[in-house]
Amino acid sequence: MIRNLSFEVKIQHNLKKCFYYDDGNKLLLSPTSNQVFSWKTAPFSPNAAPNIDSITEGPICSIRFSLDEKLIAVQRSNTSIIFFHRETGETFTHRCKSESESILGFFWTDCPSCDIVVVKTSGLDLYAYDHASKSLALVETKKMTVSWYVYTHESRLVLLASGMQCKTFHGFQLSSVGIIRLPKFEMVMAKPEANSKPVLASEDVYIVTVYGRIYCLQVDRVAMVLHSYRFYRDAIIQQGSLPIYSHKVAVSVVDNVLLVHQVDAKVIILYDIFSDSRAPISAPLPVLFRGFPRSDSFTSRPGTKESESLEASDSNDNEAIIYGEGWTFLVPDLICDVANMRLWKIHLDLEAISASSSEVPSVLEFLQRRKLEANKAKQLCLAITRTMILERRPINMVAKSMDVLVTSYALSLKAGSYFKGIKTERTSSSVPNVSGPGQGVDVNTGRTDGLGKSVQHESASRVNSVSVSRPSNYLSSETEDSSSFEPLKISSNDAQFDSGKVDTGAESSATGNPLNASVSEQQESQLTSPAISPDEMYRFVFAPAEEEMIGEPSYLVSIILEFFRSANLEKVKVHPNLYVLTVQLLARSEQYAELGLCVINKIIEPSKEVALQLLESGRQNFQIRKLGSDMLRQVSLHQDYVLLLVQDGYYLEALRYARKHKVTTIRPSLFLEAAMTSNDSQHLAAVLRFFSDFIPGFHSTSDFSTYYHILNEMNSSSVVA
């Protein structure tokens, strides 16, 4: 089961149920005849209170705030847009100059050459806002026939549909580095059995961003597939199709996971297209409701029918939610429930997804790419790996899992994401809302047909993307094959076209900060990555497994050796305690020959901890103990080695070694006592002479007086005898 509807904002006021979504500012808007109610959806809060602005009375086709949120633009008809200044209350109106063209919609942009783009049936008009004259100045016009358009602020990409079947597209990216024109392309549409030609509708086209790469998804209801297109500078490449099982389909993106809502079938199919895979990551999953405690100010008045209905609904937390007829899916991860006046936010139930697949390495790969709930993903990975070992799964399966975890950790270290904390951000780009004009896509009019009629469908606002490997993104020029095309991706400032060659949108060798659209809705966390360090592998996987496993430890040793192999390939340093555990396990099963080979071949890396454990485990095996003493010298632990020699009775050799390696921290009395214990006066005399020669003032110490007296007594005893 998947917990998809986990938070809610109760939108309660006696207004007409008409909502628009401004994806540039992450605002849910509900206008009345003379007011606009607006709710912040990022960061998502169930207790969000609306802001209220006054506007003049009149029809509303579309409404959006500028990115600095100083202006409100309202499309009154297919020929006029009126602008309201929120602070001063001043207004001005923009009208079409030609009666033969009509306005399909508009959006704000942070493009340096213009502030707002008006989409008309005759093409695009790019305008700059003149603060002094309170008017729009035309910057550029791009002429072409347009039937409808799709735009998302996150991608800064607008697609303009034209043709008899509306399957011919022109594309423009209006980003902070300028305007980039995509090549013209056509979408694939299956032919029905009859001679009729289906017409592509705006609600059948989605722009989504996954792992920093921009895709277009197109619903083909004749072929019952979801076509996927990836954007490059010189080409738009179709990248396969996903099957659909419902005529009513919607798309969401949560933490870079593509969710295809099969509305009629009341299930969701999840895809993780990190490596352009088209296989679902789990079986089809239902939608579950998980409520959030709501503030009193946002609950219905008790005793009302609405209150009773909501209370009954909320009491059934464990029941599957039936897709509502009035639901509008806002890409990436919001649902506007107009009938119940609620805004839902989609979340993934990582536990359910993990439990729905038996392919453990694939599940671990999926969890290691999760960013929104990195800590939960990490805990699941630890639990899955520990359980897999306790259940004694096949070694090759465990080895693949170790490769996944170690590789992920190595990549996170290179990217610098393992130790960095997450700070909550407000917007999907590094440009703050107050720095420039913004953009919005409304729920009802984000996609508009040629007559200016509202369409109940929404384009993407933002997506949860991971680190990309360039500080800004451009598209490469077209070359011999599609594998060399560079995708349209998301940058640290906005979406641009990438000119560098990158295999995936989440390379760990990132040199810049990507647009991390997921951060704006996360609670603060100290984890940016679910990667698991070798220390955590020891503490939470291997050590607990060693305590719980019964019988011959050879299986656990084999698993640990596979972990060493993976760590060596990725040049990841293994925690010394794991080497110590390996020594203990091999010694416990009296596999001294294997232990010796592991030490000699440096499968077990030398360290003080390992050396001391070899000495301890070598009490019953001289060769292992010798390996431990040799390791002390190997890691330059000269004092420990000297103490070991003294302890074993080799105090004269210890003196020579201490002098050679300048070990001066050991008390002379330790050597003198060992020499005295041997009852050899010549050895005691040699030790006294050594310290007298090499330690200035030793003749004046109590040690010299004590042991010189003992030496004289030993000599006297030998003479008498």
TrEMBL record:
Start-end of Low complexity biased regions: 461-473
Domain Mic1: 518-704
Compositional bias ranges of the Polar residues kind: 484-496, 506-529
Stretches for region Disordered: 426-529
InterPro entries (UniProt xref): RMC1, RMC1_C, RMC1_N
Domain annotation Regulator of MON1-CCZ1 complex N-terminal: ranges: 20-136
Domain of life: Eukaryota
SUPFAM superfamilies, per database record: DPP6 N-terminal domain-like
Stretches assigned to coiled coil: none
Protein known as: Mic1 domain-containing protein
Source organism per UniProt: Hibiscus sabdariffa (roselle)
